[in-house]
Amino acid sequence: MTRIGQIARVDSILYWWGAVYHERVVELAPGQYDYSYGTFVKVRGPDIDLVGIINDICIYNPEYGIPSVKPNSQEALRDLYTDFADEVRELIRIYCLGSLTEGMFNHAYPKIVPKVHDEIFKMGDDDIKKFHFMGDDIYLGYLPRLSTFNDYVHMLSAISDTLSRISPSSAPLLGKLMRDCQFKTCIRGLGERR
Q1: Could you report the per-residue pLDDT of 30-79, keeping only the tens digit for each?
Q2: From CA 39, how far away is CA 150, in angstroms rounded?
Q3: 96 closest CA partner among 152, 52, 147
Q4: What digits encode the pLDDT tens for the residues 132-142?
Q5: 96: phi > 0 → left, psi -120 to 50 → alpha, else beta; which?
Q6: Most distant CA pair in the chain: distance in Å?
Q7: Is the pTM of the predicted complex or chain greater than 0.90?
């Protein structure tokens, strides 16, 4: 299981921000694809794993982060501005999808929120499968909440790609769901142009 970072801020029960680990903090820093848009993540609680999906990424620079001297390399920049180099952060916004306890999934709002400094992990295929499948049946109980997002079709596409890879037998159903959502988005867009 890949450690991605730690919780830096909790805006609500559904929205959290995480600070991605970099090589100066941990020995094995995550790669960019480990925390890309649409990646399933989990945060371990006392007796529950909170499950979310990365729905935005932000590069944070300090307010006065542009040095007037331009060094030749990133290494030279670190030598000259060690405080500056340590303050640059990649932040990920996580949308909570539900929770996992003892292998049982729940796509409703969780009863707890993560604490600041709780570790964020990229979910493996087994955990993603436990969160979405019961036998051969697929469950997407969080889908109505996601439909309120502006980038709903893109988020659903990322979810569909991951679940189709994990369970190829569910690909036709997920493909139909994607086509329906794309059609509704196009129709809604046409209606808004009047």
Answers
A1: 888 999 999 999 999 888 999 999 999 988 775 555 555 565 666 666 66
A2: 18
A3: 52
A4: 998 888 999 99
A5: beta
A6: 60
A7: no
Determine the pLDDT at residue 87.
64
- Report in angstroms the alpha-carbon separations of 174 from 91, 132, 150, 159: 30, 12, 20, 9
- Element (DSSP H or E) covering residue 6: strand 2-10
Closest CA to 144 of 193, 122, 177, 179: 177
Tokens of 161: 């790609």
DSSP class of residue 19 equals: E
Contact indicator for 102, 140 with CB cutoff of 8 Å: no
What are the structural domain ranges in the chain?
2-137
- Bridging pattern class, strands 89-101 and 49-60: antiparallel
Question: What's the mean pLDDT when you consider all of the chain?
Answer: 83
Please state, for a pLDDT cut of 90, what percent of the chain lies above it.
48
What DSSP line would sit under 128-159, residue for residue? HHHHHEETTEE--TTHHHHTTSTTHHHHHHHH
